[in-house]
Recover the amino acids of this structure.
């Protein structure tokens, strides 16, 4: 069964270069098997061009490597905290994709300026604060805890994305592929929001009723988009 | 005959990813057969990589699905209103192309800054207002009605493009291919207009006589561009 | 001999899509055979994907089509004026390349901000004024005459590029390939100049002595760049 | 042995077009063999599409061509000064990559706005002043000397990149491939820093403790990134 998981996670990882979300090794995807409590994740610092399905590393929710010839991604502890805090998610993605990272570096949440954003992400995409010097001692784990805290006042199912100040984005979804899908949406939305502000420096977020209309076209009991 | 229409609409849809106008399934093309009063349109939410000619859905101008294994695009009702209001058009395109959508999000019409714009689009490209909460109840249909209203004071033949505030663009043409062509032009014009304003924040639209010269090089009785 | 010219001009035209300088048919290259006084140019409005060497049109300096199955580019009269005014050039290019056209739409000359610019183009790249309504009656020809006038106070050999306000760029060179090369340089220089001003709104042109150093590394008796 | 060096330098040079860092011949990579005191470098002005391993030129640290059918890169004297001043480096890269060159033209150092930057480059990326008219007489050599002077107050191992005002970037590394790697990082970081300032004109550099955390995840005795 975990061979299948490794293959899926390999394929989800390979979508990151396909969609132009990574330079070199600056990104990683994981997917969890909730029954066994184990997840597969990209090995740390291995080039995408050389990656193979069998290189994926199996880790449990205590951070123990269960199987694999490589060290797991250095961001593994962040993935673990997200799997713990968000019980219904099955996949997590981290990238340094260019536009989302530019917003993270700017330290701003991304306002919802239109329906492309509203179709997938309900409201402004939050940007969490820097870690304190004390928190930096356990950097990757505390990054995950900080994100989890943010989502005590936000709905992780309706907002499957976050920016970490001066760092970059994390996204999630029901599995690794949906988490990648959300990473692509985030990058496109981040790009259009920045350009939108250039075109109209006085722009305000889209009306709430339009955002609701679009979000609920695709989500919930009355969704009617797709097959 | 409608097999031929499906094939054409499939091919026109496949031009959207070719020209970089869509991410995932965020766009659709339709083309109408005016004799039968039916049009073919992309199915809702089906990935471009998996799309086949036989997947196109045939719909009549009352919105009834005449033939097809899938639900038609969720924007079908907008296409219908445009076919009803604009009697000489044969094709309609909707995308979330990046630059045109950024202008739509900014809520601004695109001024005509040069001949690239004037060659195809006569005057500023309009941006229609948000729908009211009441209008949102029949969202896609009222989007089409709002566009049609805008073109009571504008010539849909000379201006085959519109932006919907906080949403994105629609374009049209004598058939599906020309509608796609206009979607490509719109995106390029939107990009250059935004950059032009960055380079010169005091820029004003191009002189009317230059715009007339270029528009009528390509359109009307005295056109002399092309073969 | 003119078969060879057609082939060269075909190949030079095909470099425009290769270098991303054209959308659809928005560009054209010509090259002249000074002995016969004839030049080959792209036919008007024919798609690059369908173009063949034998489609090139041979025109003389009076604008008479000497050979060809198609009408020549609608910009032919501009090419003629440039060949007449600039006796040592052998090729001319017109495009609507995105960044150069954005500067043309902004109505600004492109200041020389660095050595990439100085390596090929000596000084600021001029932007000529709009034609008057009277001049627009013979639009393409008067565009060429206006450019030629500009270069009575500028050296066409040291500055093989010009912007036409609210329109786009023309470049030239010793043959069609060099004219295309200069069109690529212009687009790259236009892009970097715009971004440079975004990064530093107070930026001033590069020092004259640095520009001289770079220009004369590549041009004139003491050039030492290349083989 | 030097055949192997030529092959490596050829391959490192070919990465520049692969990563989109060069237009035409606007870039060069060298790598040194410290034992023999010779380095291989790209020939001057030869197109990347035509380049072969045997075209690389072998030069010693006095600038004498030891082997090769071509003249070495016109920037050879700069490479020599860097190899002399920075004893532990093995490779040098020069490009006119678009974003890094835009910062160089703007005459600004690139502030460290995030972890993508901090992972590879410790602190702000310096921008050295213009050469004086006197210094321009020995342009390429004095460019190298000026860079070396800058790094008397900066650590060339922790900051393997520099911008030359109104010109462009140089990067270096333990070999030619690492120098290219750093050139790619620099371009990405330059792009995101410019966009970050557009998104937030009041942005300040990332906190020092976060930068230290990221830099030392990848460098030094306690590094834990990668295998």
């Amino acid at each position: 069964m975990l061979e299948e998981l490794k293959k899926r996670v390999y394929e989800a990882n390979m979508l990151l270069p396909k969609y132009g979300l990574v330079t070199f090794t600056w990104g990683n995807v994981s997917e969890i098997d909730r029954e066994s409590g184990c997840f597969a994740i990209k090995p740390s610092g291995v080039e995408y061009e050389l990656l193979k399905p069998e290189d994926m590393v199996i880790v449990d929710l205590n951070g123990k490597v269960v199987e694999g010839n490589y060290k797991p991604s250095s961001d593994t502890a962040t993935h673990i905290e997200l799997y713990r805090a968000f019980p219904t998610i099955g996949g997590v993605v981290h990238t340094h994709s260019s536009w989302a990272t530019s917003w993270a570096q700017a330290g701003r949440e991304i306002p919802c300026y239109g329906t492309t954003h509203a179709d997938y992400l309900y409201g402004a995409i939050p940007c969490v604060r820097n870690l304190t010097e004390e928190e930096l001692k356990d950097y990757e784990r505390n990054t995950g805890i900080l994100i989890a805290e943010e989502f005590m006042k936000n709905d992780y199912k309706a907002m499957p994305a976050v920016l970490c100040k001066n760092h970059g984005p994390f996204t999630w979804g029901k599995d690794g592929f949906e988490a990648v899908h959300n990473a692509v949406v985030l990058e496109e939305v981040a790009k259009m929001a920045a350009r939108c502000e250039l075109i109209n420096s006085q722009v305000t977020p889209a009306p709430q009723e339009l955002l609701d209309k679009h979000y609920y076209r695709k989500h919930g009991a009355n969704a009617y988009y797709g097959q």
About this structure: Chain D has a mean pLDDT of 97. Chains D and B do not touch (no CB pair under 8 Å). The longest strand of chain D covers residues 27-33.
